[in-house]
Design goal:
alpha+beta; Bacillus phage protein; 113 residues; 42% helix; two-stranded antiparallel sheet
Length: 113
């Protein structure tokens, strides 16, 4: 999955289902979509900005009661039945981003079945 596809997946999880059209761009500081903007996947910064990614982590913890542990260059997300753990030689944010994407993909598959 490309970064653009992963960012779109996260944006949809966060409630923005109209990526690529005129819509309200997600404002990570407000946890909502207050800014009128034509949003493309290139505008989304989940993979590079803690300001964008941490609200996603908080939503995962609050919505599903999962536990997210970020330490060094590793991110582990504990669910009741599955553990997602990623280490990244790149950075802490890269490991966290990949764990979040994997979790959302897994969750979406669970919803389909």
């Amino acid at each position: 999955m490309t970064v653009q596809e992963s960012n779109k997946l996260i944006a949809e999880f966060m409630g923005n289902h109209t990526i690529g059209s005129t819509n309200d761009l997600y404002d990570p500081q407000q946890h909502n979509f207050p800014v009128e903007h034509t949003c493309s996947v290139d505008d989304i910064m989940y993979s590079t900005s803690w300001d964008w990614l941490m609200p996603v982590v908080e939503k995962i913890e609050d919505t599903w009661d999962f536990s997210v542990h970020i330490e060094d260059f590793c991110c582990t997300i504990f669910t009741r039945s599955v553990e997602f753990s990623f280490e990244s030689p790149e950075s802490k944010i890269d490991a966290t981003y990949k764990a979040v994407v994997e979790l959302i993909q897994w969750y979406n598959e669970q919803e389909k079945s």
